[in-house]
């Protein structure tokens, strides 16, 4: 059975699709394809059915990542099938924990930057939507840095399931 990770931001067009794409690439490079499933969603449904923000697509493609994406809204029923729900900022963390049907489900929610030791206490990935292209570059840097630690944690879980 695959280990399932879902990244969540506000509208699922900037931060969470970026995190999904980066982490999916890390999972593939680590040889964990088929063992780890990666997707993303938004806390709201404003952009449901739309592609990622063009600035997200540009930054991902310029850095060698897949940019295919269709936005969707997180559904609380998904907690039952997910192993880890990764929030991109503390507002998402609170919203997701409120949506969690059980305490066990709420415990599945973590902040992405909590996997980056260099993040210290600054665990939010800022929303680049209302800014310029440099905000998307900064977002990618934060996502990449945290994805290294997240991959270590997920690999430990996957190897623990196989044992």
Taken in chain order, the helices and strands follow as: EHEHEHHEH
Separate helix tally: 5
How many E strands? Answer: 4
Largest sheet descriptor: 4 strands, parallel
Quaternary organisation of the protein chains: single chain
Strand residue percentage: 5-15%
Mean pLDDT: 96
Give me the secondary-structure category: alpha/beta
Radius of gyration: 15 Å
Strand order of the largest sheet: 2-1-3-4
Shape: globular
Low-confidence stretches: none
Helix share of residues?
Answer: 40-55%
Terminal CA distance: 13 Å
In short:
The protein is of the alpha/beta class and 163 residues long.
Structure characteristics:
5 helices; single chain; globular; 42% helix; 163 residues; 4 strands; alpha/beta; 4-stranded parallel β-sheet
Walk me through the structure.
This protein has 163 residues and is of the alpha/beta class. It contains five helices and four strands. It has helices at 15-29, 54-62, 90-99, 103-106, 133-162, and strands at 3-9, 36-42, 84-87, 109-111. A four-stranded parallel β-sheet has the order 2-1-3-4. Strand 1, helix 1 and strand 2 (36-42) form a beta-alpha-beta unit. Helix 1 (15-29) packs across helix 5 (133-162) and helix 2 crosses helix 5 (133-162). The chain is globular and about 45 Å long.
């Amino acid at each position: 059975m695959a280990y399932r990770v879902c990244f969540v931001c506000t509208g699922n067009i900037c931060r969470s699709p970026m995190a999904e794409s980066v982490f999916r690439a890390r999972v593939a490079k680590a040889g964990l394809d088929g063992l780890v499933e990666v997707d993303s969603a938004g806390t709201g449904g404003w952009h449901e059915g739309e592609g990622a923000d063009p600035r997200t697509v540009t930054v991902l493609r310029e850095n060698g990542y897949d940019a295919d994406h269709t936005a969707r809204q997180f559904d609380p029923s998904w907690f039952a099938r997910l192993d880890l729900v990764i929030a991109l900022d503390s507002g998402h963390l609170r919203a997701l924990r409120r949506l969690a049907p059980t305490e066990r489900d709420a415990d599945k929610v973590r902040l992405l930057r909590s996997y980056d030791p260099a993040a210290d206490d600054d665990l939010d990935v800022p929303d680049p939507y209302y800014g310029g292209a440099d905000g998307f570059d900064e977002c990618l840097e934060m996502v990449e840095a945290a994805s290294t630690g997240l991959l270590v944690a997920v690999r430990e879980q996957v190897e623990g399931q196989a044992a």
